[in-house]
Design brief:
Elements (H helix, E strand, L loop, with lengths): L10 E2 L5 H5 L5 E6 L4 H16 L5 E6 L17 E5 L10 H20 L8
Parallel strand pairs: 1-3, 2-3
Antiparallel strand pairs: 2-4
């Protein structure tokens, strides 16, 4: 558990200091979004809950890229919301082949829904 000085607040208005945050040995999830973006608004309650439940276990941060454009400049954000996940040792999270395959499957299903407009139920 981090000793004093760790900032576990969700909203971030300044640059993310990945080096300092990594020194605490905790994983990080940084959400780059906007309070005006519909998917970002849908993520907000999830981030708030995660931030409360994971305090002292992980850093959960939200950066409003439209309000604080300079904060997002160090990360190649092209669309919002974008989540950056960092391991406790400060290295970027890289999913296992199995998890990457599951993510790819879900993205393919999402693409079918978006392209065709056809929504269907399935069990993973």
């Amino acid at each position: 558990m981090p000793e004093g000085g760790a900032d576990f607040s969700l909203a971030t208005t300044g640059a993310i200091d990945f080096e300092t945050m990594s020194s605490y040995g905790l994983p990080m999830i940084i959400d780059y979004g906007s309070g005006s973006c519909i998917p970002c608004k849908q993520m907000a309650p999830v981030l708030e809950t995660m931030n409360k439940e994971m305090e002292n276990v992980a850093f959960i941060k939200f950066v409003d890229v439209w309000k604080y454009t300079e904060v997002a400049n160090s990360v190649p954000v092209q669309v919002i919301p974008t989540q950056v996940i960092v391991n406790a040792d400060g290295t970027p999270f890289v999913p296992s082949d199995e998890l990457a395959g599951q993510i790819e499957f879900v993205l393919c299903i999402f693409a079918v829904v978006v392209i065709t407009g056809y929504v269907f139920n399935f069990i993973l």
